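SAMPLE LOG
Freezer: B-3
Tube label: C17
Construct: single chain, 96 aa
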Amino acid sequence: MEYVRLADGSQTVATAVVSVILGGIILFAIVAKVAENLSALARAKPSDLGFPLMIASVMFLVLWLLLAVFMTSGTQAAAVAGGIVGVLFLGMLLFG
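STRUCTURE (predicted):
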């Protein structure tokens, strides 16, 4: 899908709306997956929680840094950061 750009390189309103909708869907899926994992962690023994909590902490920090890049950069870097976040998200859903 090719984004429509204005003469100054900025996105059109329609592209921004699509981005917000897709972001909302991804955010909802992340929240649902986190809730599922938290319910599984609540049933686990405390000795089983060390490694999953470490992985979750690292994933959170990486996603937080990429979000900071996404919010403060131009459109090219934002697209790259968004792609990386998408790949991490899919990995988290498949293997998390």
